[in-house]
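Dear colleague,

Following up on Tuesday's group meeting, I ran the structure prediction for the three-component complex that the binding team flagged. I've pasted the input sequences exactly as they went in, so you can double-check that nothing got truncated or mislabelled along the way. The structure tokens for the whole assembly follow below. Feel free to forward this to whoever is handling the docking comparison.

Inputs:
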Amino acid sequence: MTQETKPHVNQNTPTRGHVIIDDVSIVFSGRNAETTAVKNASAEIKPGEFVCLLGPSGSGKSTLLNAVAGFIAPTSGAVRIDGEQINTPGPDRGMVFQQHSLFPWKTVLQNIAFGPRVSGRGNSTPLHEARAFLEMIGLSKYADSYPKELSGGMQQRVGIARALANYPSVLLMDEPFGALDSQTRAMMQENLVSIWREFGTTVLFVTHDVDEAVFLADRVLIMSAGPGEIIKEVKVPLARPRGPETIASAEFVALRAACLDVIRVESLKAFERQNE
Amino acid sequence: MMEAFRRNRRSYLLSAGSVSFMLLAWVLVTSTGLANELFLPGPQAIWDAFVKAAVKGYQGSTLLEHVGVSLWRILVAFAIACVIGIPLGILMGASRDAASILNPFIEFYRPLPPLGLYTLLVMWLGIGEESKLALLFLAALPGIIITTVQAVHSIDPVYVRAAKALGANRATILREVYLPAAGPMILAGMRISLGFTYTVLVAAEIVAATAGIGWMIWDAAKFLLSDVVIMGLIVLGLTGIALDMSMRYLGRLLMPWTR
Amino acid sequence: MTLRNLLMSTLLSAGLATSAVAQDKPEKVTVGYLNLVNAQLVTKNLGLVQKYMPGIEIEYIKVGGGGDMLRAIAADQVDFGGLGNPPTAIGVTRGLPIQGIMVLNMLDYVEAMVVRTDAGIKSFKDLEGKTLAAPFGSTTHYLLLQALADEGIDPASMKILDLRPNDIAVAWARGDIDAAWYWEPNLDKAVQDGGNLFMTSGIMASRGYPTWDVGVVMNDFAEAYPDLVEAFLKAECEGIDFWINNPAETAKIIAEELELPLPDATRMMGGTGMVPCDEQLSAGYLGSTGDIGQFADTLVATSEFLVAQDRLPKQLTREDYEAFLKPSYLESAVAE
């Protein structure tokens, strides 16, 4: 067997990862009342597309993401990926969480190798696979370190590598950079985009940060403040690769303003509802 | 780093100071005749009893043999309690049904004093090693189960979700997520439980033992050999500390991420 | 409460305490008695000590065995107590502040070795390889080892376990042990359950190893209240006389005190030797002031044995054990 030095990357036009969110509503029944977290959400994400789900806090964007991940069953409607209805979590969808979710008891290498090992996905032995991914994110020398020895940004890079090591058709990201400082955050965003361009995986990225959404996405879906409905779709035709100069461009500023107008109204609604 | 060292040095100094003070008080009180030698022999008498028990032995066994027998009893009983208690605790922590089935028994027997059970154990299991091991086992078990359940409950659910999203099945999650995530807290529970088991040792060795550090203390007390009693208690205390330290060492070995 | 009031009441209570000590009699006398069959149960049941100590509260404390009694004495929890010869030898050698003032009882077949009938034990030699039990440090443990030594048998050739009498009963019922040397009221349970008596403490006494329980008083108490020691002895002597003269009545009392069937109480009485007080002053027992009797020899022999057993650090002279025995109180009590 040859030593794998790079992850096995599909350079052709992606064919997997076609996500259909079909009229999904999610209702939580509490002790006294029912809360509608997501209401009649419908969307289609093409294979290889990068879509950001943008909304104020409490807009149900994370709930919708969890339905795609299979952690929450929709009350009505369905999520289908490549024609298969989603009922449970599975290794075809890689998940990156907001908080630290690396297993503290496993080394960085063992964390990345976990998915390929338990799911049987991947192209070579789990440890070889993991080494290749570690090299890709530039953290090879931390292979035998424990997560707590890494900075927050490094940990989140490992989290992305761990999710990708299963070669998922969709990468689901729940505000993954929310806890990072702005410098690290900008670096991580560029890093993520270059990895995504290499892998061609479909990405569904949840954020409440308008700049982040516009910088990363091909398309931004904006959700209303509770009950969460997808109220607007903003296409982002900005050229790639994007960098600091992109943010300064008039096009970026205009797109950002378009999103911000909607978000501001929704945030205000959410704020007023809290004070009722 | 420097700061930590200074703090450590300060606490070492304080510990050494308090121990020296105790020893000095002991020497003073015994050498001036303030304390009745029958109840509190001086350090020299304790040392003599130690040397005698170590070299000549006490009632047919050397001190090392007494300690060995007791450690064997403790460790066997404790190991069985861990092998049964930790998986049981993980199961009860992870499954509400398992907890509902097992909780009534554990909640009922946990507050019972182990000594109250001993008479029954002797009737059921006889006067041999079985009843002694059973008593120590029963002393160790509830602490291990309860801390394990608590440890599992305090696991951050994000780890379980991450493992599920990566394609792990239930058995893998129990083994590779619940067990290591709860590990540090389980170890803390094990240390407390081992300490409690240790306190039951003398009681366990009262009935029909002919060796063991607990039996030695019990036997010597009957003959007013307070030098042997105090020497035995010191040995018991020191081996207890040694056991606890080796548990911590074992913990660092098994759970290198906690270092 | 003001400071002055506090001061006053403190002084007052201190004054009361002082005056109590200064009185010629204590408020309370505590008698520790052993859980076995002897005339102390009669004295207690008939309230004789109370009769001889009017106006003083009498408290009886039941003590399980010699080891517990030694601890009670060491902790100054009793004024009067009772001890078998091995614990007496231990207590005297270790300098406990006690003196022996009377013979509580001589041990006959109330203490005996029971062997399992189907174990085929016909001689001490047959015990080799068997499992035996005795409460360590007791009179029976002492006699067991003495008997083995006399027969030239190594105790290591058998398994001798340290069990308390009630644990012996449990172990016997389970079949864990082949033989046990212990005492009533648990002894009979083993006899009824496939056992027979192989050796008694009475037979060992005739071989030169008498075992007995001696009544003791704390030194401080005897010094402060010599008349109360005498009163105590008068009460106990009356109990002994009652035992000897009214066996049927006594059996009823024993049965009541130990919650036993009457026939059992009668049998156990037969296994216990009660010595009339005047006889206790003869050479076979306490002896008299200036001419201490055989009890001192028993203590010497018991101490020698315990030293050989490594359970006593040192051996005292006969004079030391003689000093422990104080027949003078009994002499005055009998003389009156």
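Chain B has one domain: 45-258.

Cheers,
M.
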